[in-house]
Amino acid sequence: APVIHRLDYQAPTYWIATVDLTLDLDPAKTLITSKMAVKRNATQAHGALVLHGEELTPLRVMIDGEPVSFRQDGNLLHIDAPDRDFELVIRNTCCPEKNTALSGLYTSGGGFFTQCEAEGFRRITYFLDRPDVMAVYTVLLRADKAKYPILLSNGNLVEQGDLDGGKHFAKWHDPFPKPSYLFAVVAADLVAREQRVVTRSGKEHLLQVYVRRGDLDKTEHAMNSLIASMIWDEARFKLPLDLERFMIVGVSDFNMGAMENKGLNIFNTSALLCSPATQTDADFQRVEAIVAHEYFHNWTGNRVTCRDWFQLSLKEGLTVFRDREFSMDMAGSPSARAVQRIQQVRNLRTMQFPEDAGTMAHSVRPDSYTEINNFYTATVYEKGAEVVGLYQTLLGREGFAQGMALYFERHDGQAVTCDDFAQAMADANPDSALASRLDAFKRWYSQPGTPQVTARGHYDAAAQTYTLTLTQRNPKAGEGAAPQLIPVRMGLVGAEGHALPLNLAGQASVGALETVLLLEQAEQSFTFTEVSSQPVPSLLRGFSAPVLLDDGLTDAERLTLLRHDADAFNRWEASQRLALRRLLDAVQSGQALELDIGFLDAMRAVLRDPQLDPAFKAEALRLPEAAYIAEQLPVVDPQAIHNAVEAAWDQLALALRDDWAWAFEAHQVEGGYRPTAEDAGRRALANLALALLVRGSAMLADPVWPGKAYQQVKDATNMTERFGALSALVQAHAGLADAALTHFHEQFAHDALVVDKWFMLQARTAERDGKVFERVKKLLQHPDFTLKNPNRARSLLVQFCNLNPGAFHRTDAGGYVLWADQVAALDAINPQVAARLARAMDRWSTLAEPFRSAAQEALKRLSERPTLSNDVREIVTKALE
Ligand code: DPP
Ligand code: ZN
């Protein structure tokens, strides 16, 4: 497959203004008739009309009512088309029931569903399947009425009725021109939760959440989240719902989390269904965020879309930023907001930093790809959201909102680029630091790699000055890469823990307690005056830029920040750095980890601090993830990291045993289940405490806490507590773990999303004596396991290979053999999911021996298979480059 380059973008030779689609839905052979108003694009030289089409059977092609000849060349259909506007009619068939890739039109649970982003529409009919071709769609659906009583497409229902032979039809019209990737169809036996809402302008809207019979009671949280999202977007950005009808549909076979099709969002059931009995607090939070994300796309993505797929972060980075802001506002208290930020950063460091350092490293706006599906990445989404956050840091909330307003004023209804967004932000704020540095700022879009920032301070007691020297480098950005614009939010903390007023030499700063320094050169110094005592710098507050910071602080200084920093994020960061230093020392020295009294006392103090929220404590007491630890090391021995982390947990479990017992008892939530940040925080801390109590018990051969946990698996009234107890037993390899797993499986065998959790937990368990690996191999044979359902495949394989390094990287290479076999098997079914699994080897070249050679060997063997999809081929080829 060819490499596609961003700079090769050309507008199309023809536009398509309207599409009239008729689908005669049949699982084995669906007949599609597409009537298109084709417009000549006079800015381009005349040439053949070349349409995309994949796995389709063409029946006939007509121009202005006359049959014309056509030529198929791989996945392209060449038509000799006139040098003018014309009407094009194409009839073709496709086979939904054989579509296991779940891209295009496919069947799931006896219904029809579509997924067209990025390039699925071409698997339904021949088209200019590119996001800059925006058309008005009218869709006529015909299908068996008994099997498919619900027929949905984008926009408004125009007409419906019965047909001969037990069939019926529905006609939908979407008044908004849209790219083909936002097209959607659903035909299935579903039921809906409905709500009518009136928005500020006085317009009434119908909101519907469609699911399979029996799941209706799990849709309340999604509906509430949708309404909250509507209210928030109007209040924060003055963006109202532009549709009379907004539908969400759940489907259990789905490659992504959810899809923002205009007016007809399609959701993976794992991102939609919620009930206290079957979903955890984290699930409730995730559903709220994804419902909001897809809803927010209606403006950032749909009303203004991407000119080409290189601009994907234009809509994804921006929409993730928007859903994060929403979630923080929903969480409420400053502490709950900080916890959200902590979780975002933990996720960024575990998922995106390794990506940015690995074989698939790419900039937020990539320059080339072979398979666009491989670029729905943590970099495009999460780092992209960080970059959008930088605008807000530089412009303030008001300035950012003005930039958004100008962006819509200029580009509503258009397909645009990341440059257009940056320009609108700058033009709306002409006197800002952004506007005067726009080219430098835009390096965030063009340069891959995580910038490495070093900070060193010097206190001059005689002169009462404190000089902070910041440097930056980004080796991954390549030779001669220019410095990036890095906003460093910071403050100075005095020895007694009070915030010091900031007087910055050369600036009219008047003693504020916090400021944002702009690091824009390779090295810069900032001198603060009238500093009466040696300060501790608190840098990169709220994680004000996505960089790796070496702050050079001592343990004592970090303890000061942990206790006193006014910024909750940096208090958490101090806890993580204290732990990280100890873990890295053990890994690098090859010595067994021994946690010192000073560290353990600090952790105990956090746990016992009456001023701190439980949710914050749960985050501060969690150790850094193995993937983040690995990113600090030039050569990675996954087993050494695993051993250090396990030893640290063991010691935290035993040294703080009484404190964990107190924490568990003191944070029980009374009364009915509520998914609030406050209750969820208490449950998170109680679950962490239980995990460490069971762990300690397993080491001490004490039956009490495992017994309590087992009882909780049986008796809990919500999934957060039930799954917390189950995880505690399984993660501790406690004697009761197997019985608890069996009990849990029997209780929830009928609920696919809970069975996914059951697989996931076993695949993610920290390795002990190879037992986890053996269990995963056995689970591959479990009657409930299948590669055909993406959720199930991911719950076992991605969890094990991509997210459990201590179990996956084995000296006998067993994990790699399993990986190569499963990637190949999955690739024959679903290339997108297989390519995700293939990325478990992204960081193979930094592995220590014998892992490195064995990983390379596995990659080579996989790459030599003749039948790999483009998706997996691109990942494997880049890994071996
Ligand atoms: N469905 C994916 C998302 O919303 C791709 N647009 O991020
Ligand atoms: Zn999105």
Write the layout of secondary structure elements.
Elements (H helix, E strand, L loop, with lengths): L3 E2 L8 E11 L5 E11 L8 E4 L4 E7 L2 E2 L2 E4 L2 E4 L6 E9 L9 E5 L2 E5 L18 E11 L5 E4 L2 E7 L4 E13 L5 E4 L1 E9 L5 E9 L7 H18 L7 E7 L6 E2 L4 E5 L12 H17 L7 E2 L5 H20 L2 H24 L10 E2 L8 H34 L3 E2 L1 H11 L9 H4 L1 H4 L5 E9 L4 E9 L12 E8 L5 E2 L14 E5 L3 E6 L7 E4 L8 E3 L4 H10 L3 H22 L7 H12 L5 H7 L5 H5 L7 H18 L1 H10 L10 H24 L3 H12 L3 H13 L5 H12 L3 H13 L6 H9 L10 H12 L3 H4 L5 H14 L3 H8 L12 H13 L6 H11 L1
Parallel strand pairs: 2-12, 18-19, 19-21, 22-24, 25-32
Antiparallel strand pairs: 1-23, 2-3, 3-9, 4-8, 5-6, 5-9, 7-8, 10-11, 11-16, 12-15, 13-16, 14-15, 17-18, 20-21, 25-26, 26-30, 27-28, 27-29, 27-31
Helix pairs in contact: 1-2, 2-3, 3-4, 3-5, 4-5, 5-6, 9-10, 10-14, 12-16, 14-16, 15-16, 16-17, 16-18, 17-18, 18-19, 19-20, 20-21, 20-22, 24-25, 24-26, 25-27, 26-27
Bound molecules: diaminopropanoic acid and zinc ion (ZN).
Structure in a nutshell:
Residues 20-182 form the Aminopeptidase N-like N-terminal domain. This protein is an alpha+beta fold. The chain has 6 domains: 1-188, Immunoglobulin-like (Sandwich); 190-303, Zincin-like (2-Layer Sandwich); 314-446, Orthogonal Bundle (Neutral Protease, domain 2); 452-545, Immunoglobulin-like, CATH 2.60.40; 553-639, no CATH class; 783-881.
